[in-house]
């Protein structure tokens, strides 16, 4: 079966060809620098560069649509001065390159419609389904349960976790690298959980889940091979056990397969 989604080599982004060629990214966190400044880290303003990288990907892939799987802005709760000042013009620059920008609101996007108004399309916070030819892809952020409609998708795609792998050399030096996670779960169990009740009319078979790396490389997330890290960022669908994180296949941005999460835990 022809794949409906393509990972873009060396980039934390996906491309879907049908029905509209769309670039998919997650966890952009525009305005994150202001929070770092408040705690004493003088980080130069990087958000323009992050948006420029997205623009370059749009042009390189010929995408007609940009889909952001949550956390376009950073400050929560509330909205920062940086977001009010720069986010509208940043989005407008990208809007000139595509026919539509769709945002699946994440937990950091509260109040974003007051900033961006109708310059983008707001998808439901529990996600939506793309009919990619003969395959369906369910897209959601991951901080909340997806919609029941997503249980009929062939593949789910989420962000929120900012997954990284932490590796330690013999010298004690550690590195953290963004990774993709590929998991599988039982479709019927997911559908029952989303309905919150038992039902005989549920879809059957397996369903795959792809967890995207954060597009913003400055913000760390869950070191998936360190059991004590980031449990609050796992999101309900991972915390529920419907998808076994220890059995997740781990891939670097360049496509290198690192094995399962369980294989990497002894390297942390």
Overview of the molecule:
- The protein is of the alpha/beta class and 268 residues long.
- It has one domain (5-267).
- The chain is 22% helix and 25% strand.
- It contains seven helices and 14 strands.
- The protein has helices spanning 32-38, 47-61, 81-95, 112-116, 187-195, 236-239, 261-264; strands at residues 5-7, 14-16, 22-25, 65-68, 100-103, 121-122, 128-132, 135-139, 155-158, 164-168, 174-186, 206-211, 249-252, 257-260.
- The strands form two sheets. Strands 7, 8, 9, 10, 11, 12, 13 and 14 form an eight-stranded mixed sheet that branches.
- Strand 4 (65-68), helix 3 and strand 5 (100-103) form a beta-alpha-beta unit.
- Helix 2 (47-61) packs parallel to helix 3 (81-95).
- The chain is globular and about 45 Å long.
- The relative contact order is 0.15.
- The model has no long low-confidence stretch (mean pLDDT 88).
Annotation keywords:
14 strands; 7 helices; alpha/beta; 6-stranded mixed sheet; 8-stranded mixed sheet; 268 residues
Topology overview:
Blueprint: E1 5-7, E2 14-16, E3 22-25, H1 32-38, H2 47-61, E4 65-68, H3 81-95, E5 100-103, H4 112-116, E6 121-122, E7 128-132, E8 135-139, E9 155-158, E10 164-168, E11 174-186, H5 187-195, E12 206-211, H6 236-239, E13 249-252, E14 257-260, H7 261-264
Parallel strand pairs: 3-4, 4-5, 5-6, 8-9, 9-12
Antiparallel strand pairs: 1-2, 2-3, 7-8, 10-11, 11-12, 11-13, 13-14
Helix pairs in contact: 2-3
Helix content: 10-25%
The best one-word shape is globular
> With helices defined by DSSP (H or I, 4 residues minimum), what is the helix count?
7
Multimerization status: single chain
Overall tally of domains: 1
By DSSP, the count of extended strands is 14
Instruction: Give the N-terminus to C-terminus distance in angstroms.
Output: 37 Å
| Biggest sheet layout | 8 strands, mixed
The radius of gyration over CA amounts to: 18 Å
